[in-house]
Each structure stands twice: as C-alpha cells, then as structure tokens.
Specification:
Alpha-Beta Plaits, three-stranded antiparallel sheet, two-stranded antiparallel sheet, 5 strands, disordered N terminus
Amino acid sequence: MSRTTTAQVPVQLTTRAEAERGQGVDGVERVHVDWTRCDGRGLCTELLGELLAEDDWGYPVSTTGEVAPAVPRSLRRAARLAVAECPRMALSLRPPTDGSSTARRPG
C-alpha cells in the first residue's frame, strides 16, 4: 500500500500549554498525518478517537472516511493536544486549501 503526501504549511503550535488551552487559528482545521514520519504508535487514536482509529497495523485512519477529517469545534482542544503529544511529530492541523482535503479514500 502506498501513501501520498502533499506539501502544505502546517498550523504551528508553540507549546503544550497552548494546545491545552485550545488556542490557535480560527476556522475549520483538518487533521493531517505525515506518513513519512508516522510509525503507528497509536497515541493520536487514543487522544482523538472520535476522528481517528487504528488500522490493522496500528496506523491512524479517519473515522469519517476523509483523508484529512475536519475538526469540529467540540474536538479542537483534543486535536491540538494530539498534535502536541505525537512522539514522531507526524500529526498536524491544517486549514482547508483548495477543497482537496475533503476527498474521500477510494473503496
């Protein structure tokens, strides 16, 4: 199975405290996984289980079927904490760009 990545500028979180306070950009953010960094430890799926689940190998997959699922307002704090706690820095929050982030996985 091959995974592709896109070049986008991630939303920067400067500190864990900032993530816990829920500060950051306004608007719709999307969870993005950098497959070149992720090694399937599963911490993000524990912290953000409403949006991410583990596949058969432990890698995060969207529970909504989107490649980069939108983060509802009620999950922003959890999403920021998952980004801040990712041991491989493979998770980021990104604003929608050209609509391609809403694409669904084939199948």
